[in-house]
Design brief:
The chain has 195 residues and is an all-alpha fold. It has nine helices and no strands.
Length: 195
């Protein structure tokens, strides 16, 4: 991915986000993505083209957990869509219709009062069930804090096969300490074999 027209800090952020993802620490990317968005929105550099901004945002979104931070991701996708619509059609930039579909999917995700869990499963071919708590604003509000505390609890545990069970147990504990009962994917999908 080429990002030659973007500020050095945005490039630095993108590389750090990739390293965090490789280390299975996507949660650390949330504040980095927020910083990158602010930088992209505030720049007055005429060399930073809408197409360059769209490419940077596309890269950044690849390293976020959209279902954990849907409202924030919608803001990124909407800004990316604006940049795409300001760009002449060219190879490599994201497709406007695909971005609109992603925005629509996340809007459905955050609207359980209009799109039930079952309707969401069917409409988007989702097979794993989730705790309804995960669709609430509270989940997103607590995301960074909960993930930080969960990461501290799991410490240096090897992040390979079976790690998900220790991670989910730690996350359940963190949430329970906040008075929130959360059912992890294993509880919600008892017939599914997780690694």
């Amino acid at each position: 991915m080429v990002m030659k027209n973007l500020s050095d800090r945005v490039v630095e952020i993108a590389h750090q986000m990739k390293r965090n993802a490789e280390g299975m620490c996507l949660w650390r990317n949330y504040p980095l993505a927020a910083e990158a968005l602010e930088l992209l929105k505030s720049t007055g550099d005429p060399e930073e083209t809408p197409a360059g901004k769209a490419l940077a945002l596309d890269f950044i979104l690849d390293y976020l957990s959209e279902y954990d931070t849907p409202r924030f991701c919608i803001s990124l996708l909407e800004y990316e869509l604006e940049q795409v619509q300001l760009s002449p059609e060219q190879d490599g930039i994201p497709d406007a219709d695909e971005l609109k579909a992603r925005i629509s999917k996340l809007r459905d995700w955050i609207s359980p009062e209009t799109v039930s869990d079952g309707e969401f499963y069917e409409k988007y071919s989702r097979y794993l069930k989730w705790d309804p708590l995960e669709r609430t604003p509270l989940w997103e509000e607590l995301y960074l804090e909960v993930e930080h505390e969960t990461d501290a609890l799991v410490g240096d545990a090897p992040r390979g096969m079976g790690f998900c069970f220790g991670y989910w147990a730690a996350k359940r504990k963190v949430l329970l300490d906040k008075g929130i009962e959360w059912k992890d994917p294993h509880i919600m999908n008892p017939r599914v074999m997780f690694d």
